Amino acid sequence: MWSLPILLTIGYIDWQHRRIPNIWVMILAGWAACYAAFSSGINAEHITINIGIGLILTLPGYIKGIVGGGDVKLMLAIAPLWQPLQLLAVFSIGIFSLLLLMSLIHLISKMSLTKALYLNENSVSNTFHRGIPLGSAVAIGAVFMSFVT
Length: 149
Description:
By secondary structure, the chain is mainly alpha-helical.
């Protein structure tokens, strides 16, 4: 899948800064629109369903302040890339993998040897306090999906 480098870039930026730049979302949306236009497996019905899925998954978190506007825009931008069940798999696998990774980082940061060796303790101990980087979760899920399909 040619959108994977864009998603990985977005995932990295989101992990580092907990922010998804609009320019990357626009690049991804443009690529996804081109992909959908020339793909026989994606049609307007699938895109409409995926937009609904994206809004259902992100708007409640946006209203509560758990996810940002970039996360909502990202879910809308990836709507043309997968079938609805594949989109749900990308999201679910990505969120599960990301939460597992964040839990592992948090656990490791609590170990006394790691605390003594790690110079910047604040960046690790704030793993969950900084929010969930949905862009990183989508990137992880997309990598997994690219290996499965």
